[in-house]
Every structure is written in C-alpha cells, then in structure tokens.
Write a structure and sequence with these properties.
heterodimer, A: about 90 residues, 5 helices, B: about 300 residues, alpha/beta, 15 helices, 8 strands
Amino acid sequence: MDVKPFEMILAIRQWQSANDETRVPPSIVEIYKRGYTQAVGVNTELREALGLPPLKTITNNPEQLELFREMLMKTPVVSANDYMFGG
Amino acid sequence: MELCLFLGCNTPAVRPDVERAIRATMPVLGIDLLDADNYVCCPAFGAFPSTDDGSWLATSGWNLSIAEEKGCDFMVQCGSCYSSLRMGREHIMHHAEKRAKVNELLEPTGRQVTGKSKVRHVSEVLYKEVGTETITSLLKKSLKGLHGIVQYPCHTLYPSEVVGFEESARAPKGMRELVEALGATVDSYSRELQCCGGAGGFMKSTPEQAIEFAKTKFDAILAETQADFIAVSCITCLMHLENVQNTLNKRVGEERYKIPVFDYNQLLALCLGFDPKEVASICNVPRDSVLSRIA
C-alpha cells in the first residue's frame, strides 16, 4: 500500500462532492464565472498607485474565458451540476 | 534566469503590495519575471481538487501550458497555489491516462501540456537559486537589531516527496537563513512548525478551533521569543496571522497580539531600498515599529 494521507483526504472530499450536491464547493462557480476566487485585476487604481502594471486577466478576455468555461463544462462536476453555472 | 510569475488570486486582488515587492526584488537578484497572461485559479484545494480529478487537472493543465509556452518554470508565492500546481503537474507527468484526458480537454482551447515546466516556490528560488550570500551582498539597508520569527508554509513542506525542497521537512532552514541574510536575529520557539491555522478547510469549517489553534502559536511566540516581526512566504499565512491577532485581541480585551507580519519579499524589498509605500503598505497589524528601525 502506498496511500498518502493528503491524497486520502482529497479522495474523501471528492466522494462527498460526487454524492451530495450540497458538498460542491461554491468557489468553483466563482472560478467558472471569472477564472478566479477573487476579483483579480479590477483594483486598477490601487495597482497604479503601487507602481504595478495592468494584469492581462482571463476575466477581461472574453474569448479565452469562453474557451475555459467550455473546457470545464466537459468535466464531471460542472457537467453534473450545470444548473449552478448558468447565467 | 527567466521564470513565469504565477500570482494566484489573493495576492493581486487583496495584497498587491506583495506582488509589487516580488516584481521589484527578483530582477535585482537576476531573476527576470514573465507574466502568465490569462492564467486562472491554481485551482485551490478547496475548489476543483475537492470535486474530481478531471476539473482539477484540466485547470492545472491550462495554467501549466502557459509556462510551457513561455519555455520556463513557474514561480509561485502562495503556498496553496504552489502545492496544487505541483501536485497537478505530478499527476499529469506520471499518469499517461490522466495526461491524455487533460490534453483531450485542452485541445479545443488550442493548448496542450506535457509537464516540462516545473513549479517552484519563491522561497526555494531565493534560497537555492540566488543564495543568501548574494542577497546579503546586494542590501542597502539591514534588519540588524531586530528579532524575527519565521512561518514556513505547510504546503512547501508536506507531502515532502512531491512539494519538498528542504533537506528535511521536519527541520527546514531555508526561511530562517533567508531572514538572517537580511541581518535579523531569528528566534526559535516550540511551535515554529505549527500551521498558521488559516488553511481554508480549517478556518471555514471550524473557525473556533482554528482561532484557538492560532492562539497557542501566538502565546508561544510571546512567551518564548523577542519577536519584533513574523516573516512568511505564503499569502494565506500573511493574511491569517494578521487577521487572527485582531480577532484574539477583541477576545482578550486588550492589544496583546500585535506582531507585524511581512512577506519575505517585502522585507527583502525594504532592505534593497524600495519605498515602503509601494512594497509594504497594506496591513492589518501596524508595521511602523519595524519600518522605523530598518536602516
């Protein structure tokens, strides 16, 4: 047996998610919608004040975001719970 | 040396001064950073890795393909991003079936992944690629006279066979030597290797226990060290070790917990002479007590 504790915990979480839709993490909807769990790249004034360049985020690139969403829609959790990802 | 900077979600959105510190310091040390345009969430362990391998590895593959296109490795600061990407790469590299599935999903997006780009943590790049002697030789200011403690990011230690770069995950020394290279005295204490307590699953599902857990760490710091600051190299550690001090102060009814927390690259940037307003301006625990003593 070469079972690693970290992978065992992830396997339990995946089992929960696959068998109980209330266990599907809400953060995956955020990632599907904008690519990130946070509003990345929209704090432009603060970034400018710190001397940071604008970020080329997927949120601001509709074509890439659509490709990313289409890819995710073919994966088990998104296709099985597609009602969460509409709109 | 060129590395592709993977910023994750929290750093650019919540603590961009850390991003500024990384972008300012690494080129001075000979590390040129390339942007990872159109990257997405790593994905965080509490997101797709907690649902199924397909969505996790497809998202990892999307990100890894960006570094591969640039022909270099990823450099990551966030511990969770580092571990998720590194584990994702491990699966993609060593499981032909999984790699084929990921590439099938990526194909319509015009991307593909082989696993040729590695995932490196910024502290490993600083410690092993740049080296403490080079860092010390370039400093314009020093932390001499200040005592610090270090918080090792758990995700850079365990599981050590996948994410580790220290000789021993049970006795890491990289962060300590990096902070010492800036001139500070690093104090040891009994709970040095204890997690910050800010890990998503812990703090979100059992916040009371997570806060009490952090309290044991801070009580040990106060009892056993002369810490003027805490040095971290993970955005979660940075935000949690600040926020939890404020929470603890409200509970005890006094300002007992008030140790400033810095990302290592912020301390490095300050010692390289960069403006604190640009590289260390966002904090929830005041930093003046440290900033005024960096000379």
